[in-house]
Amino acid sequence: LFEKEGILFFGPSQAAARLEGSKIFAKQFMERAGIPTARFAATGSLDEAKAALDEFTYPVVVKADGLAAGKGVVICETRRDAEQTLEAMFAGQLVGAAGSRVVLEEYLTGEEVSFIGVSDGERIVSLEPSQDHKRIFDNDEGPNTGGMGAYSDSRILSAEERALIESTIMQRTIDQMREEGTPFRGFLYAGLMMTERGPMVLEYNVRLGDPETQALLHRMEGDFGALARTAAEGRVDARHLKFRAEPSVCVVLAAAGYPGKPRTGDEITGIEDAERRGAVVFHAGTKMQEGRLVTAGGRVLGVTSRGATLAEAIQRTYEACEAIHFDGMQFRRDIGRKGLRRWESAGGA
Asked: How many Å apart are CA 249 and CA 195, to the nearest integer?
């Protein structure tokens, strides 16, 4: 519609957005393009899915085909767990219509990395790496969420790893989309697992990730508008991508009940105090009600800070979190800890 009217537009077409909108489309696309990803089976019925379980060892990953607000992925430790998950998914009890088709996937081990690029349909330039924390509880325990926090630190990937991802995953995705007649223009997010076999794609998003965006933009010094405009015009310009060296951390404050049905209407206090401590507080599930700021969704706020070191960024962020209060508030207390362990084992800070 925008193209037809001659309106400059930055973002993927409906056809290109299937990379996120359908897990089955994305997995089959990666197979056609030779993009490294986990072994999988696409299924359209409960009987077909149960039969396909014979092809996998455990744990196995069960993914709803459609969009499910970050809650359509279940890691099943046993066949019984997998069958029960499949029965609930196909019955519409877990994620509704999004689970009418299902992907079964080999379970990968390693460390997850979020890698985001900006494409003009032919070229893609990369933002700095970041790492999301999907599970609701510390130490990556409990059910998946839309993301409980993220940190961005350029040391997450080596120069060699970054170059490999850019060539074998990011640019290859853009090239294949163009060859198939659906050029991709916009933000391309690759959720990766850094395995012993190399980086492998877990999923695509066709947008900036949440909460990775908060951490990334808190480091960005370039002209975000100019970056998007040059990409929309078909001439993406990496000179607009400039980032501060300091790492940044975003911690999500979630409502009671999340990632199930969240409780809403709880009054939020302390945001001004948190900001006085140097944080930027991004609003997500909030609203004004009778002159009070109250919770209005599962993930309520994203508290974000940066520091000279990752340890300092973590400390500043959690100090700001402690200033905020609403009944039932829950948040992880280990955001960024994986990075700290990595640098400590390497003799850094």
From this structure: 24
Is residue 345 over pLDDT 80?
Answer: no
Size of the chain, expressed as the number of residues it contains? 349
Please report whether residue 164 resides in a domain: yes
Residue 1 belongs to some domain of the structure: no
Structural domain of residue 329, as residue ranges? Answer: 246-349
203 found inside a domain: yes
**Dist CA 26 CA 236 (whole Å):** 24
Residue 102 near residue 68 (C-beta atoms within 8 A): no
pLDDT above 70 for 252: yes
Residues 3 and 7: their CA atoms lie apart, in Å, by 6
The total number of structural domains that make up the chain: 3
Tell how far CA 146 is from the center of its chain: 7
Rounded to whole angstroms, the Cα distance separating 265 from 295 reads: 5
User: What is the distance between the alpha carbons of residues 101 and 48, in angstroms, rounded to a whole number?
Assistant: 10
Structural contact between residues 220 and 243, judged by C-beta atoms closer than 8 angstroms: yes
Q: Is residue 99 part of a domain?
A: yes
pLDDT in tens, 178-204: 999 999 999 999 999 999 999 999 999
Beta bridge mates, 102: 43, 64
Tally of CB atoms within 10 A around 22: 19
DSSP string, 130-188: EEE--EEEGGGEEEE-S-SEEEE-GGGS-HHHHHHHIIIIIHHHHHHHHHTT---EEEE
**How far, in Å, are 19, 234, 245, 311 from residue 16 at the CA level?**
6, 16, 33, 39
pTM of model > 0.90: yes
CATH number at residue 196: 3.30.470.20
